[in-house]
Amino acid sequence: MTVPGRRSSTFTRLLRHGFTDPSASERLLETPELAPVRSDPVLLDALGATADPDLALLGLVRVVEAQDADERRALLDTLVTAKPLRDRLLGVLGASEALGDHLARHPRDWHALVTYEAADLHPGVAEFERGLAEATDPVTLRVAYRRCLLAIAARDVCGTTDMAETAAELADLATATLRAALAIARTAAPADAAQCRLAVIAMGKCGGHELNYVSDVDVIFVAEPANGGDEGKAMQAASRLAAHLMRICSETTVEGVIWPVDANLRPEGRNGPLVRTLSSHLAYYQRWAKTWEFQALLKARPVAGDPELGQDYVEAVSPLVWQAAERDNFVADVQKMRRRVVDNIPAAQVEREIKLGPGGLRDVEFAVQLLQLVHGRSDATLHSGTTLDALAALAAGGYVGRADAAQMDEAYRFLRAMEHRIQLYRLRRTHLVPEDEADLRRLGRSLGLRTEPVVSLNKEWKRHASVVRRLHEKLFYRPLLDAVAQLAPGETRLSARAAAHRLEALGYADPAAALRHLEALSSGVSRKAAIQRTLLPVLLGWFADSADPDAGLLGFRKVSDALGKTPWYLRLLRDEGAAAENLARVLSAGRLAPDLLLRAPEAVAILGDPDGLVPRGRDHLEQEVLAAVGRAETAEGAVAAARGVRRRELFRTTAGDLIGSYGTEDSPAEEDPGALVDRVGNAVTDLNAATLAGALRAAVRAEWGDTLPTRFAVIGMGRFGGHELSYGSDADVLFVHEPREGVDEQEAAKAANRVVAEMRRLLQLPTADPPLLIDADLRPEGKSGPLVRSLKSYEAYYRRWSLVWESQALLRAEVMAGDADLGARFIDLIDPLRYPVEGLGDDAVREIRRLKARMESERMPRGADPTLHTKLGRGGLSDVEWTVQLLQMRHGWDEPGLRTTRTRQALAAAHAAGLIGTEDASILDEAWVLATRVRNGVMLVRGRAGDTFPSDGRELAAVGRYLGYEPGHVGDMLEDYRRLTRRARAVVEELFYGAHL
After folding, report:
1. What distances in angstroms separate CA 468 from CA 335, 360, 584, 642, 664, one per listed residue?
2. Residue 530 has what DSSP assignment?
3. How distant is the alpha carbon of residue 95 from its chain centre?
4. N or C: which end of the chain has fewer CB within 10 A?
5. pTM listed for this prediction
6. pLDDT in tens, 841-882
7. Beta strands at 814-818 and 275-276: parallel, antiparallel or unpaired
8. What DSSP state is assigned to residue 349?
9. Contact in structure between 543 and 480 (CB atoms under 8 Å)
């Protein structure tokens, strides 16, 4: 007896076995008909092993209740004593509500799951024909079909057959069903049957021997007169038989539908005659057929009717299929068809579409079929209608890398298994991943994902879809398929016009120039040309996957011209797997990185070093810069060497940023954009600090030797002090000095000013390396004040004259170069200003808000879109930074975590201290990171700094790719930016301008 208020032991056991509604299931177990097995432990164990234990138990109760007394006893006895039946029956009931309904309507069909002989494990067409032999009309055919389907599903859910075997069995069952339906139609119209020879050609997944549980069965009908009879009458008779066959399978009866038979792949589609003669089919294909029709014929297979005629049809059309790749615009046609399929998916369903969406099953099938059509002209081993068999043949023939093929095979099997289990539940034709939690749980468990099935399912699904998307694009767009393959040695050469069309289809804006580059790179008999001919197909595929393929190819030619005679360069690209792809990504992603590389092409070696893309730390950089300065004979030579190190490290940083943003075949893109922003900010800050240290050493040494008459330090300000520099940022600084013992203050001040002037001159000398601009406008009195002050002068100024904006600017102050002790004392001096005890007064807060409002109204460039300006626009960098800085000045005295020069660290500290809510902090952080990445992206793409999105379409698309948006999604990028910054501005309105600080 269960104590009131406590759960029964059965309830607990049900919960432990995976039941989601144990109360309802406990009541079902109390059903009188289950009394003989209710307490048997194997029953609960078996139910718990199913995809949906609740559904399996409900189905079992329904099946048991539908039996008469003797049959019920036999079923229950077999259920507890025979593990094969128990696993099969409960497995089906837990995965398919529809098959549970069938067993409830036809209670004796459970016997179809009892036998466990070898022939039952892997049945073929003959076995299925025997299973359908007693069907004499559409209703009995449906019942027999479901009985056979029951056995297929049982083998599938129990793991007796894998996905490919299940799909083949479903295709064999469809073949047997078409034959049975044709036999019924012939019996109903013997006169028509006598007048014609009719063959049924399976197409699509049925033809490819890879059918789904619920799918249209695509067919083509071909007929000839019987015994030399009248062709017109024979075609009419054949058409009536074909139409009757379709109705037998497609029409709804009391037992439902088997599946629709679809003949729309025939010549002229639904507008053409249902049945044609073989000669009529050939005439159409030779004159009128489109590329996609030959692609569809890849899977043609005779399955029913006259076998000789069916074989004649396949042999006649096969040569036409393998000539399709020679048609004009072949690749463009296939691309267009794939895009049309994706474009026709309702927007609300794209992300859930497992078959037709990006990274779905159709991507695998299109990629494989395209490769088959291109290479099958000369390799008969590729002539398979089954996707996985064709993929294996492509790998065996070297047309697809074995690793790529293995990944594609794994992904395709997983996605098809998902599709199978989704359809099996209600036996409905769908390719949409369900949204309901219970459905996702059942689906995940049915695929063996028992720990957190919903989370695991989504993770595995996205992983496999990502693999498919990446590999599909790589295989689909790779010019090896046409233009480059034709340009390789020993191959038939495409005409220049045809090759240009291919390159244009792959995204090249100037295909004629691209062909010239290809010819220059691949012509000749040198070792360099031979290696580049091997590399180009792969490189061109990567270029085609970028926003600017033309720039990538041109850049590769320039680098190759500069380094092609150096053995290490070609060896690097050939032997270091990542180097070639990294180079392709860097060259085709924008102007900045290629410009840096082409100024000193030997930096390409960085791309082949496993650690080459990791930014060097400040200590390492400063040591290298100071050593280079020490070796130089003149100040100009010293700073040139320092700037050369800076240029190389800028290239390292840009390359790492681009490759981290795009991802490569071996390493996915960085998922955390904040990590990319921090990496760039720290790297550029460190190399600028090291460069300043080198310039300072060079300026001092040129006039004073090793010791300057005054101690001297460079204080980083703004983004420099905050470690938040972007590629195009100036270095905001303050200069502070302190006379050495015995040195006159005026002499010390003159020396300090001469050092500053010399540093600025040296860093701006015209050379091949990018200049480092020093901006000292944040000093006391701004542009009107002296460039350099002594520590005492700073102290006197800040004590008497300091304004609130200057205290705010000092929040970013950090020592960057020079005398470390002097720098530390300067920081001690300013700490009380930037973190005032008891925080800012109300007057100071109002002044900061007034300054911010004035800046918003006066500094926004005329004509700029305030919703897209990253620095001064709504919810942009200024909004976030001023909000965080106000929090620092109000609470930094009391919260040590707020005493940092870095925006993101200060924001995190404010959240940890309870000064800002979790959601608001996340919104501000995300907006700041995005705005910073946009600025970085603009500089990478255009080669010059900018605070708003580019107006040029190709540049805008390149920024989108850098931010992770696929081609064609520029509008989404702008909308996402507006949406996020709008939310950030709402937080700023409340926290900065409101009363919640």
Report:
1. 16, 7, 21, 46, 14
2. H
3. 30
4. N
5. 0.61
6. 889 999 999 998 888 878 888 888 999 999 999 999 999 999
7. unpaired
8. G
9. no
